[in-house]
C-alpha cells in the first residue's frame, strides 16, 4: 500500500469533492488495494485491476490488510468517513469509496459477513473458508517476505466501504445516506 499523489489525482479528487459536496479538508487518500510488485504485495496488475473494477461496480465493499503493513509503510489507519480513491495498476482512478467501518482484530476472528464484503468469487459472495484460504496465502507470503512467521493471531485491519463515485458505474449518495446507481450510464 503506497499512497499516490500527482496533479491528475488532485484534479480527480477536486471533481469528486465537488460532485459529493465535500469540504476542502475532507480526509482522502489515493492508493491501490495492493501493489503490482511481488516484493511488496505479490499482486500482478491484472489482479489489482480486477479488484479495483469490482469496487467501481460496488461489488467489492471491503478490504483487509495486516496491521503490520500499515506500520511498515508508515501509514495511519483510515477511519470511518474517510474517502479513498482506489487506483488501478497504472495509477489511474477506478473509483472513490467512503469508509463506513474500520476494525482491527486477529485474522482468526474475521467472520463470514466481512468475507462476503470482499467481493464475488465466480459471481457469488465468497465463503469464509474460501476467504481464509486466499488471505492466508496472501498474508503468509507477506510475512515470509518480511521475515516473520504467519500466525492466525496477527491483527488485520478490516475496512468496509461504499462506492461514492465511479466513472465505470455511476453511483451517487442520496441525501438520506442511501446508495443508488444512476440509470443513465452515458
In words, what does this structure look like?
By secondary structure, the chain is of the alpha+beta class. It has a single domain, classed as Sulfate adenylyltransferase, CATH 3.10.400. 31% of the residues lie in helices and 24% in strands. It is built from five helices and seven strands; from the N terminus they run αβαβαββααβββ. The strands form two sheets. A five-stranded mixed beta sheet has the order 1-3-4-5-2. A hairpin with a 5-residue loop joins strand 3 (83-87) and strand 4 (93-106). The longest helix is centred in the C-terminal third of the chain and has 19 residues, at 128-146.
Summarize, please:
31% of the residues lie in helices and 24% in strands. It is globular and about 45 Å long. It is of the alpha+beta class.
CATH architecture name:
Roll
Supply the number of helical segments: 5
Strand content: 15-25%
Q: What is the radius of gyration computed over CA atoms, rounded to a whole number of angstroms?
A: 16 Å
> In angstroms, what separates the terminal alpha carbons?
33 Å
Mean model confidence by pLDDT = 82
Query: Largest sheet, if any?
Result: 5 strands, mixed
The assigned structural class equals alpha+beta
How many beta-strand runs? 7
* Helix percentage: 25-40%
Taking pLDDT < 50 over at least 5 consecutive residues as the criterion, the unreliable ranges are 174-186
Shape descriptor reads: globular
CATH homologous superfamily descriptor:
Sulfate adenylyltransferase
> How many structurally independent domains?
1
Reading off the top of the CATH hierarchy, the class is best stated as: Alpha Beta
Written as H for each helix and E for each strand, in order along the chain, the element string is: HEHEHEEHHEEE
Amino acid at each position: 500500500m503506497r499512497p499516490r499523489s500527482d496533479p491528475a489525482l488532485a484534479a480527480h479528487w477536486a471533481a469528486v469533492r465537488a460532485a459529493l459536496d465535500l469540504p476542502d479538508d475532507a480526509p482522502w487518500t489515493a492508493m491501490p488495494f495492493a501493489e503490482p510488485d511481488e516484493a511488496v504485495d505479490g499482486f500482478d496488475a491484472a489482479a489489482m485491476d480486477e479488484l479495483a473494477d469490482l469496487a467501481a461496480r460496488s461489488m467489492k465493499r471491503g478490504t483487509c490488510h495486516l496491521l503490520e503493513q500499515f506500520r511498515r509503510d508508515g501509514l495511519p489507519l483510515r477511519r470511518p468517513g474517510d474517502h479513498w480513491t482506489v487506483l488501478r495498476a497504472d495509477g489511474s482512478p477506478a473509483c472513490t469509496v467512503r469508509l463506513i467501518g474500520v476494525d482491527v482484530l486477529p485474522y482468526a476472528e474475521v467472520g463470514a459477513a466481512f468475507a462476503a464484503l470482499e467481493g464475488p468469487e465466480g459471481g457469488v459472495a465468497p465463503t469464509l473458508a474460501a476467504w481464509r484460504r486466499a488471505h492466508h496465502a496472501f498474508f503468509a507470503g507477506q510475512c515470509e517476505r518480511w521475515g516473520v512467521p504467519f500466525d492466525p493471531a496477527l491483527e488485520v485491519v478490516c475496512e468496509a466501504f461504499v462506492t461514492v463515485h465511479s466513472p465505470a458505474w455511476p453511483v451517487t449518495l442520496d441525501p438520506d445516506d442511501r446508495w443508488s446507481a444512476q440509470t443513465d450510464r452515458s
